[in-house]
Amino acid sequence: MTDVLFPYEQLRSFALTIFTKIGCPADDAALATDVLLSADLRGIDSHGLARLSGYVRLWEAKRINTNPDVRVIYETPSTAVVDGDAGLGLVVAPKAMKVAIEKAKQAGTGWVSVKNSNHFGIAGYHSMMALQHDMIGMAMTNASPLVAPTFSTERLLGTNPISVAIPAQQQPPFVADLATTTAANGKLEILQRKNKLAPTGWIQDKSGNTSTNPHELKDGGALIPLGSDYEHGSHKGYALGSIVDIFSAVLSGANYGPWVPPFVAFLQPPADPVGQGIGHFFGAMRIDAFRPANEFKLHMDTWIGRFRSAKTVEGKDRVLIPGDPEREMEKVRLAAGIPLNSKVVEDLTDLGRKLDVNF
Amino acid sequence: MTDVLFPYEQLRSFALTIFTKIGCPADDAALATDVLLSADLRGIDSHGLARLSGYVRLWEAKRINTNPDVRVIYETPSTAVVDGDAGLGLVVAPKAMKVAIEKAKQAGTGWVSVKNSNHFGIAGYHSMMALQHDMIGMAMTNASPLVAPTFSTERLLGTNPISVAIPAQQQPPFVADLATTTAANGKLEILQRKNKLAPTGWIQDKSGNTSTNPHELKDGGALIPLGSDYEHGSHKGYALGSIVDIFSAVLSGANYGPWVPPFVAFLQPPADPVGQGIGHFFGAMRIDAFRPANEFKLHMDTWIGRFRSAKTVEGKDRVLIPGDPEREMEKVRLAAGIPLNSKVVEDLTDLGRKLDVNF
User: Which of B150, B183, B274 sits opposite A233 (nearest CB)?
Assistant: First the structure.
């Protein structure tokens, strides 16, 4: 179970070849690779190369179209609906985010709801696309139902993340990227691999009792919305996850709630879909649609500086700004390499063998 | 400490007279009353009549302008910045939300950031204004710093609520209205009045240790962001509260973070303001800027119906949809009256005496 370090370029080249082998046009393969690897670089290991063979299995099951016609099917000056044509979310999402950014250039803001897509990697990649345009970026997506609403024993929501990226001047940007659950599924996967118990408040069993068994979801259990229990506000996490679901899928015409198709190819999508594929939602707000961008960014520097220099509790040397840990991780991993655990290495080696690519 | 029931009309008439006495024009007084009383009707007692004398004290301290010129000072097709002219938030907020709705009619969506305002009552009032236009409504605001970011012992954020209102067809609307803290300040006030301990995870003491003392904030303690502690995602609640602060105040030019002026008149605003007053942020998205409104609302009926009929944990007879408890409370209180506890009754009686109005 030791992790081995791989240079970023080696992993990039492998993923690029795999995406090309399964039929992605060159530009799409490069885009998908960039999005996927950004998760590994930023330390969100569950959403990076560890998922590559999962995407390929979905393609084998004919649930992913690697040559999609991603297109705007409806629009107003500040909104659009994008049909992902069953493409890789890794490709559909940045294309839809680009539409949001173009809308914002004209109308001040742009808002794009996407249907007929698949898993889009980390939300933060897409929201951060807005930063270079002096815009605030937003990205969210629904996902396979693993989460039980407060008081429910049924899994009706995904971990439905929200990302918001906000530019600053001298300071690095503010980048929040959070699952609307107490713990992201990736954290559970780490516990499963290490055979460790989960803290209480992350998981419930099939009857809705709190559980520390990280394998509980295989036995009808569920992840718990941010808040852990009703007394600590799990109904708020449930509301936030619901908003993500509705913006991503009910606005666009994708599947929502328990109808969202599972990411894993060995589970069939529901036989009675209420829409097409999974849904995403993107937003871009031009800073200077509110006030001069420089003025705003200087105030963001003040905001970030004040929070970063707050007095800390004992044992912690600083208050973090959202995005700090991921940015620092990216720097380390670009220089030192990306650690992959032996199961992921094995999985990628098998994948390479199947598609005749050296890992 | 017994609660006495008062008819809605009596309380409405009292508040209307008070707002008129302190100089609000007739329309503004009616609007402020409507917003304030909506909190009492919906069961958010901390934000209703219990706050009336607080608003009056701020007016006495010349921190509220009861005859403000609320105006758009900057705009693009889908955005605006509104200067509240130091008016009552209860008046400024619905006027700004109206601007968002008008923008949405033209551009598909409307987004309004507000500076130079004051406490705006419940966020849900403003977001729900969008519903009658077949729009999704959003409202958020920053507030006096009572919340410590994860790992901080300093209070840098308010309870910074987010409200999102989404229309349905046959089903009542989905209305989320949540403080981005584990517990809203109002819940703490209830424990203070009843001399009860708080659950762990709501409050920390001045050193950042968890505390169950509901009076801890008077001794340098702080409310904790949604999530309760780092292991359960308090950094997510901190990020959400930060986003509310930035959208409300850094975009508009209001005060943010620890510079937000306190709601209570006996505390002076910071001597080194970074903006004007407190800030709000409003959004309106026309449903048919994405898909036909009827189609969307029928799917919302399906969404709500599915969640409402989910299997429940033992001891709970149903899964709630955000907005259910408040809507049911409103029905009860409109019919049976609004309960006020003796401290609030005493406070309102004193207020009436001061301004020569019978309570």
Answer: B183
Is B222 part of the contact surface with chain A (CB cutoff 8 Å)? no
Q: What is the pLDDT of residue B233?
A: 97
CB atoms within 10 A of CB A60: 12
CA distance B83 to B322: 31
CA atoms lying within 13 Å on the CB side of residue B330: 11
Contact (CB, 8 A) for B251 and A291: yes
- Which pLDDT score is estimated for B1? 55
Query: Is B285 in contact with A79 (Cβ distance < 8 A)?
Result: yes
Report phi then psi at B140, rounded to 5: -150, 160
| Ranges for all domains in chain B classified under CATH 3.30.60.50 | 183-223
State whether A111 and B285 contact (CB < 8 Å). Answer: yes
Q: Look-up: residue for tokens 């619905």?
A: B94
Res B250 pLDDT > 60: yes
Residues 6+ apart with CB under 8 A from A10: none
Nearest to A307 among B156, B181, B306 (CB): B156
For B280-298, write each residue's pLDDT tens digit. Answer: 999 999 999 999 999 999 9
State whether A107 and B77 contact (CB < 8 Å): yes
Q: Given this model, what pLDDT does residue B255 score?
A: 98
The Cα A45–Cα A57 span in angstroms is: 19
Structure tokens at A194: 């290490």
**How far away is chain B from the Cα of A152, in angstroms, using its nearest Cα?**
4
Residue pair A95/A70 in contact (Cβ under 8 Å)? The answer is yes
CATH of domain A183-223: 3.30.60.50
- Which of A99, A101, A93 has the alpha carbon at shortest distance from A141? A93
ipTM of the complex: 0.98
pLDDT at A81: 98
CATH of A3-182+224-292+326-354, one of 3.40.1160.10, 3.40.190.10, 3.30.1370.60, 1.10.10.10: 3.30.1370.60
pTM of the model: 0.98
Nearest chain A residue (CA) to B200: A232
Considering the domain delimited by B1-63+338-359, tell me its CATH architecture.
Orthogonal Bundle (1.10)
Mean pLDDT by 10 residues, chain A (359 residues): 90 98 98 98 94 97 97 98 98 98 98 98 98 98 97 98 98 98 88 90 96 94 97 97 98 98 92 97 98 98 98 96 98 97 94 95
**Which tokens sit at A180?**
């609307």
* Residues of B (293-322) whose Cβ lies below 8 Å from A: 296, 299-300, 302-303, 306-307, 310-314, 316, 318-320, 322
CA distance A15 to A352: 10
Q: Which CATH architecture group holds B68-180+231-322?
A: 2-Layer Sandwich (3.30)
**Is the pLDDT confidence value at B217 over 80?**
yes
Every domain range in chain A assigned CATH 3.30.1370.60: 3-182+224-292+326-354
- Give how far B38 is from chain A: nearest CA, Å: 21
Task: Give A-chain residues touching B252 at CB under 8 angstroms.
Answer: 290-291
